[in-house]
C-alpha cells in the first residue's frame, strides 16, 4: 500500500468579546496547517477550507472568544491520492465528522501582544481541553493571531488500524495557524 501523509487538523482559533464587534477571518491571508513526521520526514499540509469567528477587543483580551471550524476533507498533502486518503474512515472519517472545531473557554493576557488561549478541541468526535500561546497584533485594519498547538493524533483516534503504528506516521502533530481577521 502506498504510504501517505497525514496532517492533523486542529484548528483552531477564534475570539469573541462582549460588546466588541465580531471579526471574520480573511481566508486569503489566513492559514491553518498541520506539521508531522512520516517515516521521520517532516510534512507540512494545509487545510484549504476553514472558518474562524472572533470577537476581540485589544483593550480587554480577557473578554475575547474564538470559534473555528475546519473542513477535515480539505487537507492538502500535495497529491490528490494522499489528500483523499486522510478523509477516509481510518484517518479523519470526513463523511461522519466533516468538521474539526475549536471553541475558546478562556483567553488571558500573557504579556505585550501575547495571549494564552484555552478551549475545547474536537476532532473525529473526541473533545479535549487544550491551552496554547498566541501572538496578537494589529496590521492595518486587521487583527492577526498566530500560534501553534501541539497535539497527539491518536488521542483523537486519527490513524486507526495499521495506522496506529507511530513508526510510519508520528503521533505528534503541530497545528500552526495564522488568522487575519477584519470587522
TrEMBL record:
Keywords (A to Z) from UniProt: Signal
Superkingdom assignment: Bacteria
SMART domains: YceI (SM00867)
Gene3D superfamilies found in the cross-reference section: Lipid/polyisoprenoid-binding, YceI-like (2.40.128.110)
Secretion signal, residue range per the UniProt entry: 1-20
The keyword Signal is annotated on this UniProt entry: yes
Signal is among the record's keywords: yes
Lipid/polyisoprenoid-binding YceI-like domain: residues covered: 22-182
Protein name according to UniProt: YceI family protein
